[in-house]
């Protein structure tokens, strides 16, 4: 593989930095300090002797065997094998059923299904409910817009941090075009992707219920630890379990949890019809156990994020920090009411007069924060926020979103310090 020279330099700088880090940080980063060695994947299958073992699931084989035609016919009729799982081992394997049962119980839902990604869980839900138009928050997870476009479902955007009144105004407009209840769906995601606004969730759910519209909430930010949407009037919950539930970036998956048995049946039928529920059994098994430690990990992510935000808030290049966990956030009251505690995510707005290339040099100069999509795993990450807003304004200035991983926070602070010294805090030429 060809390494670009600047990437080579970065690898040795990173290794040198790691040598000075606490054992906890080195444990997380050392195996992947050179992404060329692992093709950019932080959880390579072949790490030592554990590799082959972790790839062997007990199930996850397409053919499920039956001793007689009659036992097969019974299983085919109801879609389930007498051993547990489906009669054909592609969707809803026994591992999938186990993790779905656990997740549904954590949410007090009627049941759950699992899909191979968070986005697949969103797509499956939309396809099962087949609305003609969807009310979405302006801050919605970007790929959702692409999906609505492909499905020719009309989006009606409401403000990211909408009050009940603001939501009602958008609903009135949508209802004048789509008057049949089944045609319209109310979709929520909070706190919003990249900028973390929080709308009046209970207010919106109550208005939707009154109008006899179904509500679906993307609860990925919170996970079941911080928020249980079904207990606040929401009908269907989606969670990208790729993120915090799995916690190590090795559980690409998404779950859909429903309160109403009929809704769940529609969604399960959709999966059986499309085959889009094929999730590796190893993923399900990992998820099944990681659910037990989600809360501890989330608490640590949140504590570290708070320390990093505190640091950013004292820096001259910071114009603002976006996180509803901050007392200064306009959404702090709703945050306390619904979520109570934060997670590892926050965004930093840089002073508008700082050129973009300086902010990008800062991101590139970091050793422990990898430039990568997704979040919720053990490694700290950073990425620019390019939100396409229509009814909510974006702040002036470059915005970087950070995810605080499980490293020792003092190492992360030291890393931010050194990157800022080399890029953002250097005095312009001629001012000394
Ligand atoms: C990441 C994410 C998803 C999609 O999950 P994938 O597993 O990456 O497809 C959906 N919603 C939100 C809010 C997310 O952050």
Task: Describe this entry's structure for a reader.
With 432 residues, the chain is of the alpha/beta class. It folds into 2 domains: 11-38 and 294-424, Aspartate Aminotransferase, domain 1 (Alpha-Beta Complex), CATH 3.90.1150.10; 91-291, Aspartate Aminotransferase, domain 2. The protein has 16 helices and 12 strands. It has helices at 5-19, 23-29, 50-54, 69-78, 94-107, 118-129, 142-150, 164-177, 201-210, 223-226, 261-274, 281-290, 294-313, 332-338, 356-365, 409-423; strands at 111-115, 133-137, 154-158, 184-189, 214-218, 236-240, 254-258, 318-322, 345-350, 370-371, 381-384, 399-403. The strands form 2 sheets. The chain has a 7-stranded mixed beta sheet, with helices on both faces. It has a 5-stranded mixed beta sheet with strand order 8-9-12-11-10, with helices on one face. The protein is globular, with a radius of gyration of 23 Å. The two termini are 44 Å apart. The model is unreliable at 48-54 (pLDDT under 50). The structure holds pyridoxal-5'-phosphate. The site of pyridoxal-5'-phosphate has 14 residues, from helix 6.
| CATH architecture annotation of the largest domain | 3-Layer(aba) Sandwich
Using the coordinates above, name the CATH class of the largest domain. Alpha Beta
Bound molecules: pyridoxal-5'-phosphate
- Please work out how many helical segments DSSP would assign: 16
Counting structural domains, the number is 2
Strand order of the largest sheet: 1-7-6-5-4-2-3
């Amino acid at each position: 593989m060809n390494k670009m020279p600047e990437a080579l330099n970065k690898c040795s700088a990173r290794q040198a930095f790691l040598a000075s880090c606490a054992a906890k940080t080195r444990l997380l980063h050392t195996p992947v300090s050179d992404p060329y060695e692992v093709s950019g994947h932080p959880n390579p299958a072949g790490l030592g002797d554990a590799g082959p073992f972790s790839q062997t699931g007990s199930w996850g084989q397409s053919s499920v065997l039956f001793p007689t035609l009659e036992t097969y016919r019974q299983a085919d009729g109801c879609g389930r094998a007498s051993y547990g799982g489906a009669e054909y081992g592609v969707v809803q394997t026994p591992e999938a059923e186990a993790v779905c049962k656990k997740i549904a119980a954590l949410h007090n839902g009627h049941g759950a299904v699992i899909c191979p990604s968070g986005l697949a869980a969103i797509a499956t839900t939309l396809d099962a409910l087949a609305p003609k138009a969807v009310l979405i928050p302006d801050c919605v997870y970007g790929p959702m817009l692409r999906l609505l476009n492909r499905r020719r479902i009309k989006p009606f955007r409401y403000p990211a941090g909408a009050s009940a009144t603001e939501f009602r105004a958008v609903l009135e407009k949508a209802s004048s075009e789509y008057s049949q209840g089944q045609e319209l769906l109310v979709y929520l995601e909070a706190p919003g992707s990249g900028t973390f606004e929080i709308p009046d969730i209970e207010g919106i759910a109550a208005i939707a219920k009154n109008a006899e519209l179904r509500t679906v909430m993307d609860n990925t930010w919170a996970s079941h630890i911080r928020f249980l949407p079904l207990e606040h009037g929401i009908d269907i919950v989606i969670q990208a379990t790729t993120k915090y539930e799995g916690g190590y970036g090795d559980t690409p998956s998404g779950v859909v949890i429903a309160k109403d048995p009929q809704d769940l049946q529609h969604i399960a039928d959709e999966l059986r019809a499309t085959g889009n529920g094929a999730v590796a059994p190893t993923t399900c098994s990992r998820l099944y156990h990681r659910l037990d430690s989600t809360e501890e990990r989330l608490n640590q992510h949140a504590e570290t994020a708070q320390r990093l935000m505190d640091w950013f808030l004292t820096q001259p290049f910071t114009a603002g920090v976006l996180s509803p966990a901050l007392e200064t956030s306009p959404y702090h009251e709703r945050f306390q009411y619904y979520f109570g505690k934060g997670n590892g995510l926050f965004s930093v707005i840089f002073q508008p007069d700082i050129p973009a290339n300086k902010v990008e040099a800062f991101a590139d100069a970091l050793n422990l924060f990898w430039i990568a999509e997704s979040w919720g795993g053990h490694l700290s990450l950073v990425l620019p926020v390019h939100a396409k807003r229509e009814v909510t304004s974006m702040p002036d200035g470059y915005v970087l979103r950070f995810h605080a991983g499980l490293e020792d926070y003092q190492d992360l602070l030291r890393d931010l310090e050194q990157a800022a010294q080399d890029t953002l805090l250097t005095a312009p030429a001629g001012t000394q």
